[in-house]
Specification:
It contains 20 helices and 24 strands. The protein is of the alpha+beta class and 642 residues long. It folds into four domains: 53 residues; 281 residues, Periplasmic binding protein-like II (D-Maltodextrin-Binding Protein, domain 2, 3-Layer(aba) Sandwich), CATH 3.40.190.10; 208 residues, Dipeptide-binding Protein, domain 3; 38 residues, no CATH class. The strands form six sheets. It has a seven-stranded mixed sheet, sandwiched between helices. A six-stranded mixed sheet has the order 15-22-14-21-19-20. A four-stranded antiparallel sheet has the order 5-6-8-7, covered by helices on one side. The longest helix is centred in the N-terminal third of the chain and has 29 residues.
Length: 642
């Protein structure tokens, strides 16, 4: 007997029982026994009371088409509901988390020498490694703002001359020694000690330190300085390892290449070639790090002599990233699809600085304004720089708290530029080819005035040029013969000559620009870059005390009201008061136009896409690109949150 027969028999038995009950017969016990026996006999052929897929195919024998449609519809609804609610649960409760592991290899130009915070500031490579190995009282976050690191809290006195800092407890160095207040005192005093020859020493003139208690230090300033906390970003050395070394011998210590700090990464190994040159440097996670523990297990730095070799290494997959890529090398990177190009805001300003002492025409405000209006900065950024920069209009950059968004701008307008020159008394005078030919002959004249007139015409060349009192408006534009500078200078020349201002360009090598132009102020207009810090303090670039040979006031700008604004802003601990002073300062510069602010180049940082969660936008120094390294990750894991 097959299963179908038993099923039919069971249905007929059930039907008979129903019929007999309707006509008055009472169910007899023997009848119930028969039904139970039949059910048990049927069930004995199946190990489960739940129908199998093979058994379900017989449903169509006993169900009508309508009943089958209802059953099938219910099954579809159940399946779809299960998928929907399962997917929703997955998306809502299954979390993807960074997982410790993986290695990141970064290529850099140069080699480390002093992975030591009291020396590292003069070398980008040293600074990169030092920032990962050491901790500091303060550090900058991924947006470039100052944040606590070893400092748990701090307070500034009302007069701005005392900074009291409470240091977090429980911090250990990589060798398990505890980091104490005494280590902070030792590091600061080493910086101040001339025997150590630290480049940081000059920034702490007039500053002393004292120990308040086992968890607190106080810095005492001879005069208030609003940006003082920015100086406290140097790493802290372990006193126990360094105090035994004579200060004069500190720069020779092995600890400079095999450092012990308290930062997120610690020294693991280094590799040298047969000539003793460093080829690579390996760091591993500090398991006892007090802050957010990194997820990338190993970071390796590889060292190259130049950007040609570095970009080739990236193309050959020998490195996962490049610390910095000059704009002219971006096109040489071949495998772009697997890379992330991070354009970081960097506090460098490129500008044309006017020196009116060497060209009397530049002493006229309308001339400076006209020259500013004549330049199409957006076009230069687009066509000359390939959009690897952002246009700027003043000495303080947009990411700064002190930036003035309402600053007067000199947008490209050559017609307005010509009107300003004419309002200043200049008129256009055309020089033809015939005049050039005649002037060439006049050079041999014995009449001195004729010779001078001929030289003047020949210096201009054919075209329509502005002149005033028989003197042509000629400007000599000087710049450094490196990178994009010559191309930008040539573009500026074209814009100025388009409005009738004859322009000569002069290119000086990077090794000679300081001695031949900047220190001696031997330029009329200088296209040059200035690098500010994280704090916007423009005092070194625009205060009248900085106009001398050793100063950075390249425009020779001197104004008593502006000096006062810079002094007040520098000394005030009142955030809003500082901001207001800097806004007034920017307005004064915009009105006087001692310089044409051109653009701020991006810091191009290239990484393999395997590195996730890089989110920095603003950096003050190149090593700041590594500030959020603890948030980077390569490997991921999954976790269900119920």
């Amino acid at each position: 007997m097959n299963k179908l027969s038993f099923t039919l028999k069971k249905k007929s038995t059930d039907a008979l029982a129903w019929f007999l009950s309707k006509i008055g017969f009472k169910k007899k016990n023997i009848f119930h026994q028969q039904i139970n026996f039949d059910q048990k006999l049927v069930y004995s052929f199946s190990k489960s009371r739940i129908p199998t897929l093979r058994q379900l195919k017989y449903l169509k024998i006993f169900l009508s088409k309508k009943e089958l449609l209802i059953v099938r519809s219910c099954v579809v609804v159940i399946v779809m509901s299960t998928i929907f609610f399962g997917g929703r649960f997955y998306l809502k409760h299954l979390e993807t988390l960074p997982k410790v592991g993986g290695e990141y290899i970064e290529g850099v130009v140069g080699t480390p020498k002093y992975i030591n915070p009291i020396y590292a500031s003069v070398s980008d490579v040293d600074n990169d490694l030092s920032s990962l190995v050491y901790s500091s009282l303060f550090k900058r976050d991924e947006n470039g703002y100052l944040a606590n690191d070893l400092a748990e809290s701090f307070a500034v006195s009302e007069d701005g001359k005392a900074y009291t800092i409470k240091v977090r407890s429980g911090v250990k160095y990589h060798n398990d020694l505890p980091l104490t207040v005494d280590d902070i005192l030792f590091t600061f005093n080493a910086i101040k000690d001339s025997s150590y020859k630290s480049p940081l020493r000059g920034g702490f003139a007039g500053v002393s330190i004292e120990k308040v208690d086992e968890q607190t230090v106080k810095f005492i300033l001879s005069e208030p300085y609003a940006a003082f906390a920015e100086l406290l970003t140097f790493g802290i050395l372990p006193q126990e390892l360094w105090y035994q070394l004579a200060p004069a011998a500190a720069s020779l210590a092995e600890l400079n290449l095999k450092p012990i700090g308290s930062g997120p990464y610690q020294f693991k190994s280094l590799i040298k070639d047969k000539n003793g040159n460093l080829k690579s440097y390996n760091l591993v996670i500090n398991e006892n790090y007090y802050g957010e523990r990194p997820h990338v297990k190993n970071i390796q730095f590889k060292f190259f002599p130049g950007y040609e070799e570095l970009t080739s290494a990236l193309n050959d997959n020998l490195v996962d990233g490049i610390s910095y890529v000059p704009a002219q090398y971006l096109s040489k990177i071949a495998n772009k699809s697997y890379l992330n190009y991070h354009k970081l805001n960097f506090p460098q300003s490129m500008a044309v600085f006017f020196n009116e002492k060497n060209n009397s025409a530049l002493a006229e405000l309308k001339v400076r304004q006209a020259l500013a209006l004549a330049i199409n900065k957006n076009e230069i950024v687009d066509k000359v720089l390939g959009n690897n920069a952002r246009v700027i209009d003043g000495p303080i950059l947009p990411e700064s708290f002190a930036y003035n968004p309402q600053l007067k701008k000199y947008n490209y307008n050559q017609e307005e530029a010509k009107k300003l020159l004419e309002a200043a008394g200049y008129k256009q005078k055309e020089i033809t080819g015939e005049q050039i030919a005649k002037a060439t002959g006049d050079l041999s004249s014995t009449d001195e005035k004729t010779q001078l007139a001929a030289k003047s015409i020949l210096s201009q060349g054919p075209g329509r040029w502005y002149e005033k009192n028989d003197k042509y408006l000629i400007i000599k534009l000087t710049t450094v013969d490196t990178g994009e500078n010559p191309a930008v200078a040539e573009a500026i020349k074209i814009y100025w000559e388009d409005i009738g201002v004859r322009t000569e360009t002069e290119f000086i090598s990077a090794s000679q620009i300081q001695t031949e132009a900047i220190k001696t102020r031997e330029y009329e207009a200088l296209f040059y870059g200035q690098l500010a810090g994280a704090d916007p303090d423009p005092y070194p670039f625009w205060h009248s005390s900085q106009t001398g040979a050793g100063g950075l006031n390249l425009a020779g700008y001197a104004d008593k009201k502006t000096d006062k604004l810079l002094e007040e802003a520098r000394m005030s601990v009142d955030f809003q008061a500082r901001k207001e002073s800097y806004i007034k300062f920017q307005n004064a510069i915009a009105e006087e136009v001692p310089a044409i602010f051109m653009y701020s180049p991006y810091y191009n940082y290239v990484q393999d896409k395997k590195i996730k969660n890089f989110n920095s936008k603003n950096i003050a120094v190149p090593s700041d690109r590594l500030l959020n390294v603890s948030k980077w990750y390569i490997n991921v894991g999954k976790k269900i949150n119920w």
